[in-house]
Amino acid sequence: MLNSVFDCEVLIVGAGPVGLATALSLLAQCVNVRIIDDMPVRHATPRASSIHARTLELLAPFGVSDRLVAYAQPIRQTLFFDVQGQEILRRQLRAIDSQYPAQQSLQQGHAEWMIAEQLLARGVDVQATTRCTDLVQNAEGIVVTVESDAGTSALRCRYLVGADGARSTVRKLCDVRMVGEDYPERWIVGELVIEHTGVLTDTHILFGPDRPALTFPLDGAIMFFTILRAGELPEAQPGPANPDHVLQMYYATFGAYPRLAHRVPDVPWSGHFLMHKCCLFDGFNWTLILTVPDRTAVRTAYIRQLDLAALVWLNARVRIVLAVGDAFAWNAHRPTLYVVRPDGYIAFRCDAAAGQLPDVNRLSAWLIENFAGSLRTDSVAP
User: Fold this and answer.
1) Are strands 151-162 and 8-13 parallel, antiparallel or unpaired?
2) DSSP code of residue 164
């Protein structure tokens, strides 16, 4: 039983992943804990995004790992690209001796609120907008001075855990030097929502002529990192990045290599096409690519349905390519319909079950949603 002299057995300063996981671990061992954080709400800006199998193994006894995995995005492989944007190495993250994937992507904020919910279910809530300003230690324990919206108060605890980050107030008050140094480079980071046609599972590392750049897959987005050169974007200060700056750096790195965006090959492909060898985009027309395992499953009436649906909404700027068998290595192992923009980016994808064909109604619904307001209506002079 906790001595009445103390407000808690352990006070944790900092409600990031380390502080939250520490609190959860102590609670599971019936230790009376409190946790404070100076932030009013959880971080919404991009921070750490990778979570490894060992981390999940350590969190598993506390009932949080399966939830984290359900929200996380598995990383299957890492691709390395040279200054020409050509792939030079591919490293697959194969299965390891764990019930969890070797590496996954999950925004730090998501991980934090899931662990915080587990704490709340055990009766411990994070005291937000509360910061440690001073501490005094004696033979019995520690008296911590905290400031919040309610004013200044003192908390008494047997032990204090400083989990308040690289610029830790607790560490400074204890006169403990942080081992190591900051990297001299300035990094800019952002989460970018991108057009893609499936689940993103690859990490990309680009060794560009001016700087390295990295992307990690997220749910419907990517986490983008790159380095700012000396004197570049001098107005960019530590803290939340300007979205325009992030986009500028993305276009200067990955965006400078069309082959590295989530788009179709930009070289001629030969295969069992409906007509002949062709390029998959021409800069003017929209291209419908229908991939099927067997040509006999596709009737002229079905092709006509696709043709009519697209012609109406795309102002007749439509090509149709029928790919049979293994014509495209990037195709899923099922009948699939792609709509490729004139610049080669895949704008729409519809899969079908084996033995069936992609639903034309889904194509029509997508066309109407995106192009109903842009249909050209040429007038005829009297």
Assistant:
1) parallel
2) S
Residue 32 has pLDDT above 90, yes or no: yes
Give the separation between CA 244 and CA 377, rounded to whole angstroms. 35
Report helix, strand or coil for 294.
coil
Buried b (16+ CB within 10 A) or exposed e, 263-295: bbeeeebeeebeeeebbbbeeebbbbbbbbeee
56-60, 71-75, 132-136, 278-282 — which is least confidently predicted? 278-282
Does the predicted model carry a pTM greater than 0.70? no
- Average of per-residue pLDDT across 22-46: 87
Q: Are residues 28 and 60 in contact, defined by beta-carbon separation less than 8 angstroms? A: no
Q: CB within 8 A of 327, min separation 6: which ones?
A: 269, 271, 272, 273, 291
* Structural tokens at position 382: 């009297």
The CA distance from 163 to 19, in Å, is: 5
What are the start-end ranges of the E strands in the chain?
8-13, 33-36, 50-52, 73-74, 77-81, 87-92, 103-105, 131-137, 142-148, 151-162, 186-193, 202-207, 212-218, 221-228, 286-292, 318-324, 336-340, 346-351
Backbone angles phi, psi at 299, to 5 degrees: -100, 160
If DSSP codes are grouped into helix, strand and coil, which group holds residue 208?
A: coil
For the segment 19-40, the average pLDDT, to the nearest whole number, is 93
pLDDT in tens, 48-107: 788 899 999 999 988 889 889 888 888 889 999 999 888 899 988 877 888 888 888 888
- Cα separation of 237 and 301, whole Å? 60
The partner residues of 145 in beta bridges, in order of sequence, read 134, 154
